[in-house]
């Protein structure tokens, strides 16, 4: 997998997909997209949706920041081992999310978000397996 997928592709893929997912979560939060099609179709109320979507927006923003730091797009000096640990956590979260999407009540969620979370899991795994690169400007040579 390491030779087939560069860290550059994985990092920019994560940023792109998570940015689009972030926009989607804001659309759900503001009622543009019905909340019945997210969270496995199991949300019972608008209040419950606001809590879940707010947490999701915070987590997605944090994950985008972690990847941006790794990629040198956000020039913060963060221990590279901490970033790799974060990528392992992201991999586990996205793998579990993929399994959850497969079990979703809503077919839209199964068909659209299962492949997206699978890709996010693969990209996160690629970065978790990468050798640490010097901070803050990643060279993407591994």
TrEMBL record:
Top-rank taxon, per record: Bacteria
Membrane-traversing stretches: 12-35, 55-73, 85-105, 111-129
Keyword entries, A-Z: Membrane, Transmembrane, Transmembrane helix
The protein, known as: DUF4345 domain-containing protein
Organism of provenance: Adhaeribacter soli
Taxon lineage: Bacteria, Pseudomonadati, Bacteroidota, Cytophagia, Cytophagales
């Amino acid at each position: 997998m390491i030779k087939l997928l560069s860290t550059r592709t994985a990092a920019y893929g994560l940023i792109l997909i998570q940015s689009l997912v972030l926009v989607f979560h804001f659309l759900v939060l503001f009622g543009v997209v019905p909340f019945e099609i997210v969270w496995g179709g199991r949300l019972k109320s608008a209040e419950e949706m606001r809590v879940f979507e707010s947490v999701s927006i915070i987590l997605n923003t944090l994950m985008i920041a972690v990847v941006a730091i790794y990629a040198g797009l956000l020039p913060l000096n963060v221990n590279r081992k901490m970033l790799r640990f974060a990528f392992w956590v992201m991999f586990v979260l996205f793998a579990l999310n993929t399994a959850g999407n497969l079990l979703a009540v809503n077919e839209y969620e199964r068909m659209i978000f299962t492949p997206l979370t699978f890709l996010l899991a693969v990209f996160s795994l690629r970065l978790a397996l990468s050798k640490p690169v010097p901070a803050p400007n990643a060279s993407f040579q591994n």
